[in-house]
Amino acid sequence: MKDSPAFATDAKNPWCDGCGHSPVTRVLQETLAQHFDPSNVVLVTDIGCIGMADSLFTCHTVHGLHGRAPALAAGIAMTRNDQSLKVVVMMGDGGAAIGLQHILECARLNQNLTLIVCNNQTYGMTGGQQSAYTLPGVRTSTSPHGVQETPFDLCRLLEGFDVLRARTAATAHELPEYLTQCLRHNGFSMLETLNYCPSYTGKFNPETLTPKAMRDFFAAHGLELGMWPAATARPSYRFSPTLQPAALASIIPKYSHGLTKPVQILLAGSAGGGVQSAAEIFAQGAILSGLHVAFRGEYPVTVGKGFSTAILVLSPEPILSTSQEHGDLALVVSADGLAFTRNDLPKHASVAVDQSLETPDFAATKIDFRQFGTRQAALAALIWALQQYHYYPLAAMREAIDAVRSNRVRESCHATLEKLGRL
Fold it and tell me: What is the mean pLDDT of residues 268-289?
């Protein structure tokens, strides 16, 4: 009995009898053992049956989300300075369909990793559905009369990136040679192995289940077997982080505050109306006054359209959460902000809204915040709150505005502050 290769654990084979994942995994273990040390290999697996390979390897393993394994592997490959590190990805044809863009990006950037796609013509873990790589005529649980659509050909899709590509049957005698060349290649390499899922595709397509019949079937549908080396050598993309200062500059309090307990403020307006920027300036002024600040912004995925809100908590003591059942002050400067927060506004001790807004269902102070412009109304509301409730000095807000990088925005904010100070 032969000793297990250095990369093999004692874990039991997790796959069904006749599954092509078994020979591919065994050959990968043996090939890695010939050329690498387990401490220098990272195996990244995808969701699906192939994801159960993790337990069979003694090297570092990472288990990714469905289709995202190449992206995880690329992050590892491009940020490690150790060129002896080998990154290997294993995924099925289902994951390769979901994560096709990640595969293409890895090839485009020539990431130094080897991708092994175990194409068994189906989503084997979820019931035998067809994938984007299932060949025409193959019967699956979602195509009982045979697939009609033309599938992707991964080797051809990668052809334009000039990377090493190979395709063979999972039980072919060429598999060790192909794996060796892919693993030793400097840059991106992809090996696609072909087989049938015995529990689904094999049962639905018994006439092409034998290795010879399977290979003939693949060949008849244009899936050429072989290896296509990269014609030219090119460097892999490397991530070069910008050097940061050894430590962030500390904000030294210069002013005193008047708070003895936490205060929660809700600021509500429209996306693109400067709500988040105003909240950041306000928070900066609070920190300059020796207060602890928690800030949570919320806006829709459209970013520039709809509502925009910010919840600010100011406290003389450290803050553990921005979540409080009742707020102290709500400031609403636009119809979008009112529509989004209307049901929550009565929970606040005080509410101030722009005078253009109608609030018949609850009491609110009306202030003309928008006279300062749609992009300055939010800041105007926060300055007004400082004047009314004296959370901290206006001088701290003025210094926070001084730190704004944009000359235009900084001048507009100062103009709003000075005009409010004269009212």
Answer: 95
| Claim to verify: residue 203 and residue 270 sit in the same structural domain | no
242 torsion bin: left (phi>0), alpha (psi -120 to 50), beta (else): beta
Q: Is the pLDDT of residue 334 over 80?
A: yes
Q: Is the pLDDT of residue 326 over 80?
A: no
Asked whether residue 190 falls in the same domain as residue 76, the answer is yes
Please count the structural domains in the chain: 2
pTM: 0.63
Residue-level pLDDT at 236: 85
* Full domain range(s) for residue 291: 263-422
Tens of pLDDT, residue by residue over 91-132, are: 999 999 999 999 999 999 999 999 999 999 999 888 999 999
Say how far apart CA 101 and CA 123 lie, in whole Å. Answer: 19
Burial 194-217 (b: 16+ CB within 10 A, else e): bbbbbbbbbebbeebbeeeebbeb
Collect all residues with Cβ–Cβ distance below 8 Å to 304 and sequence separation of at least 6.
271, 272
